[in-house]
Specification:
9 helices; globular; alpha/beta; nine-stranded mixed β-sheet; 17 strands
C-alpha cells in the first residue's frame, strides 16, 4: 500500500533489529515530529522489549507482528549485512517502504532484485549512510555546487586504522565476507564522492592482507583469535563519468591512524571536508594564491542516524526522491564490488550502473520541524 493511501500525515515507522546501532536510530527518530515510531522487532524478544521501552515505542515483538501493522509505512532494517536484501524483500512483500542500514546487499544481483521489486510494487528503498545528509557534508556540497573550488576535478580519501579488534568486543564480522575496511567504511567515503561527482565509470585497485588471524583486544573475549576472511587494505583509483577521478584507500592495517580524510580539488582551489562518518564538522577551503585556508562552518541540521529515514518519509509525502536513495546505494555497492574485483583480478573494471547526482539539502532543512 502506498503512503498516499494511508490516513495520517505523520509517517509510521517500525524497526527490525534491536542491536547496538538501534539506540541512536531510536533516540533520533522518536524526536522527529514527522515520524511515529510504533514497533521494534528482533529475533530476541527480550531485546526488542528493552529497546522499545527505553525509547517509549508502544509495540515490540516479532518481525511478523511488525509487518502486519498497517500504520507502519517505513521499516528500518538494522539486521546484519548478510540478510539485508532478504529482509528488505520481506518488507516490500508486506507493502512497506524500506530504509536499510549499509550495505544495501552483498552482491549486485540481490541489490538489483530489491530495487526492481520496489519499483514494480510502487514502493521506495533508501539506504545508509545518511551521514551525507548532516550539516557537515551538506555544507561542503553546497560550497562545491556554488563554485567555491571552481570546476571539481579530483579527490583523495583515506581511512587508515590498525583494526576494530582493538576496541570492539565482537569484531569477527568486520573481517568476514561482506565487511573488511572496504565494505564497512567504504560506503561513507564512496557515497561522499558520488554526491560530489556523480556516477563512476570504472575502477582499478590493489589489495593486501597483513595477517591471517586477529586477536580481540577488549571485552569478555579478550585474547581470543579469529580468522581474517577478506583483504584488510584496498587502494583504488576511481574514474567518474564526468571526467573526475579519486584516489581512495581503506585499511585495517595501519599503526598510524588517519581517518575522516576527504579532499576535493578543482580549478580554483581545494576543499577539505569533515569526516563522512559523522553528521557535523567544518570544511576548510584552500584557494590558489592564499597561504591560509578559509573555514566554512557547518550550517544546517546536526542530527544523527535516522535523518535518512526522515528524508524518505518527507519524500513519500511530497513525491520527491530520497537523497540517500536505494539507487545511489546500489551504485556505491557496484563501485565497492568493482574495487574488490579489480584488486583480485588485476584488471580495470567497468561499471554499468548510473545515478543522478542529488542536489544538496537546503540549509533550512530541519528534522526538528513538523512539516507533514
Amino acid at each position: 500500500m502506498s503512503s498516499s493511501k494511508r490516513g495520517s500525515n505523520t509517517v509510521g515507522v517500525g524497526v527490525i533489529g534491536a542491536g547496538v546501532i538501534s539506540s541512536t536510530y531510536l533516540e533520533n527518530m522518536t524526536s522527529f515530529p514527522d515520524l511515529r515510531v510504533l514497533f521494534v522487532a528482533d529475533l530476541d524478544a527480550e531485546r526488542a522489549r528493552i529497546q522499545a521501552e527505553a525509547y517509549g515505542v508502544p509495540g515490540h515483538g516479532s518481525v511478523e507482528e511488525l509487518l502486519a501493522l498497517d500504520e507502519i509505512e517505513i521499516v528500518v532494517n538494522l539486521t546484519i549485512p548478510a540478510v539485508h536484501a532478504e529482509v528488505g524483500l520481506q518488507i516490500l512483500a508486506a507493502g512497506k517502504h524500506v530504509w536499510s542500514e549499509k550495505p544495501l546487499a552483498l552482491d549486485r544481483r540481490s541489490g538489483a532484485q530489491l530495487l526492481e521489486t520496489a519499483r514494480t510494487s510502487g514502493l521506495q528503498v533508501a539506504c545508509a549512510p545518511d551521514t551525507m545528509l548532516g550539516a557537515g557534508i551538506q555544507t561542503a556540497m553546497r560550497a562545491i555546487t556554488r563554485g567555491d573550488i571552481g570546476e571539481p576535478l579530483t579527490a583523495t580519501t583515506m581511512f587508515h586504522v590498525s583494526g576494530p579488534e582493538a576496541w570492539h568486543p565482537n569484531p569477527d564480522f568486520l573481517y568476514a565476507h561482506g565487511a573488511g575496511p572496504l565494505f564497512d567504511m567504504g560506503p561513507y567515503y564512496v557515497s561522499t564522492l558520488v554526491h560530489a561527482f556523480g556516477s563512476v565509470d570504472r575502477v582499478s585497485a590493489v589489495s593486501s592482507t597483513a595477517r591471517a588471524t586477529r586477536r580481540i583486544g577488549s571485552g569478555p573475549r579478550q585474547g581470543e583469535e579469529f580468522p581474517v576472511e577478506v583483504p584488510t587494505h584496498h587502494a583504488a583509483l576511481i574514474s567518474f563519468s564526468g571526467g573526475q577521478s579519486a584516489q581512495s584507500t581503506f585499511s585495517f592495517q595501519n599503526a598510524l591512524p588517519r581517518w575522516g580524510f576527504v579532499e576535493i580539488s578543482g580549478t580554483e582551489g581545494t576543499l577539505v571536508l569533515p569526516d563522512p562518518n559523522t553528521f557535523d564538522g567544518d570544511s576548510r577551503l584552500w584557494l590558489f594564491g592564499h597561504e591560509e585556508p578559509t573555514r566554512i562552518p557547518a550550517a544546517g541540521s546536526i542530527y544523527g542516524r535516522g535523518s535518512g529515514v526522515l528524508d524518505l518519509a518527507r519524500s513519500l509525502r511530497d513525491g520527491s526522491s530520497p537523497r540517500a536513495s536505494g539507487e545511489i546505494a546500489a551504485h556505491v555497492l557496484d563501485i565497492l564490488l568493482a574495487i574488490s574485483d579489480a584488486a583480485e583480478s588485476g584488471q580495470v573494471i567497468d561499471i554499468a550502473s548510473r545515478v543522478e547526482k542529488p542536489l544538496p539539502l537546503p540549509e533550512s532543512w530541519d528534522p526538528s520541524a513538523a512539516t507533514l
